[in-house]
Amino acid sequence: MFAMEVSIPAGAQPVLPQPERTPVAVRAAIARLDSAALARFEEDWAATMTRAREEYSVLPVRHLVEHWWLWVAVTRWPALAARLRECEQIVARSGDRATRRAASAEIGAILETAAQAA
Q: Where are the domains of the chain?
């Protein structure tokens, strides 16, 4: 059920190039990949900007951009994105601890694979 090693199939191509780690570039990539996700990004962006102003810090913005940059890194590979969603559902719904842990480990491997491919 769970892949011991996650990899991108040889010859597979992402649906779009990985953007730079900037708010504008990440937002544009999200817009191309998923309009529902773009709405979530915009909500997150507004909340993050409020938090950044309140804290007098750019760290909330950096964390938001990193989170969504990684989302793009995974989503631009449809097979990886589909498997990530499957693993998330397993973690959320399984009553078996070992199954949840294996799915969580695979999520980490998927994120790492996508980040390295970026």
A: 20-76, 78-118
